[in-house]
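anyone seen this seq b4? input:
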Amino acid sequence: MGPGEGRLDVARVRGLFPGLSDGFVHADGPAGTLLPESVVFAVAQAMRVPVADRGGVFPASARAEGLVASARAAVADLVGGVAAGVVLGPDPTTLTWTVARALARTWRPGDEIVVSRLDHDANIRPWVQLAERHGVGVRWAEVDIETGELPDWQYDELLTGRTRLVAVTAASSAIGTRPHVSAIARRAHEVGALVFVDGVHAVAHDPVDVGELGADFLVVAADRWCGPHVAAVVADPALLGELAPDKLLSVSDRVPDRFESGGHAFELLAGVPAAVEHLASLSEDATGSRRERLRTSMTAVAVYEGGLFEWLDQALRAMRHVQVIGSAADTTPTLSFTVAGMRPRQVAAELSRRGVCAWDGDFSARELFDALGVNEEGGAVQLGLMHYNTAEEVGYLVDSVAELRPR
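predicted toks r here
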């Protein structure tokens, strides 16, 4: 093994997940992952003791402060940010809207933003709708409909001195494509634009560093990496300090608190550090700080998942009745496909009957699937692997899809 590399013992890892006892093959990770026992325990423990709101002088309030601080620190370690720049919230869409509204106050008629067809609608619709309200132009980065890639060279033409924001995903949860985000961000920064990166899907599969991506804002969601339904936006605290989000008068004006006007589900916040620690401990070879252990473990995850996915991807592409969408060179272990003569909902139902959890539809990638022309038939079927999936399960997935035939 090279520096920073580690091994992943999937048998040990699977023993951490009580949800695997249902006997299904869980290939539905892109829409939400299973929870390890450590996360379940952390959330349950937080609900067994008094936890009040923040700001009090008594122990139950101090516990709330501790839960918030621990969650911020854990997310910062996960993506290489700083705790003071971690905004916590219930889901990525809500947080993106919060940041978008604050940024839109700085836009002027004639300004422009750039969004991409590859993205989840949560990183498109807030920007597009607010641009329309403020008289701001919207320019679209297009997907190569053959490969599913998002070419970074097109941003040379899309970006101008009027561009204020570029919104782009670090990885598509629909077809797995990983754009060259750092190259896009470099181009955006050269014209003075800010970059908002959707890291929701990417963080579950690789080591991620907000600085290396070039992201001014990075949104993540714990339920995509074995945590509770908690999301976060990570940014430079100084940048957050320049923005004035909508908030209640009673909410502190400090950063990052000013972005959290809705309060917190404190018991769920307890699961965030547990989920990050779960990721950091996946490789038994990982040592050092939590950030260092995360890099080692997530590198091991990427290697392990990549090997499984190569088998799944190649096997499905070899089937004459299956059409895998896209063929990007760099992807997460996620794909979408269609089956000749069957609607996606039929395929998902047949897979469920065989004990496979798989989603169907457009996976909130409406712009992408419209561009690819698959929404007319009900979208596609999605399979996504996680670090708790096995080679045996992949073999079963391949066999199950091979058996599908229209009735």
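Residues 41-277 form a domain with the Aspartate Aminotransferase; domain 2 fold (CATH 3.40.640.10). The first strand starts at residue 25 and ends at 26. kinda curious what u guys think
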